[in-house]
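re: ur question from earlier - yeah i can do the single chain one, its not a big deal. heres the input i used so u can compare w yours
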Amino acid sequence: MAQTLTLNTLEADNRSFAGTGGISQGNWHCGFIPGFLDRETGAIYHSRRADGSPASFHALDGLPDHLILARDPATGRVMAIKASVIAGFVRWGCFYTREQAACCLG
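and the output i got, formated as tokens:
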């Protein structure tokens, strides 16, 4: 069963891919931008802040409401995204998983 995407899972992914092209700081110079793929629909989403501006990291707050499972009741920040959504990168209109981005630059 797929794991729900949360801030904690994003942080764990960043630790796992530290020092590789699987994190934003390791691949932005090659044209990768943080994004998300809904494996259920095939839809790709660029990472955006809550105000809709582009984010240079994996930001959950800018994702569409239909992907959101939970928000913090006090702040309204997104806490969980449906399990079919994975974090990765978009380059030239194509989605790359963290593993694929790391391999491209490894």
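The mean pLDDT is 93. not sure if urs matches, ping me
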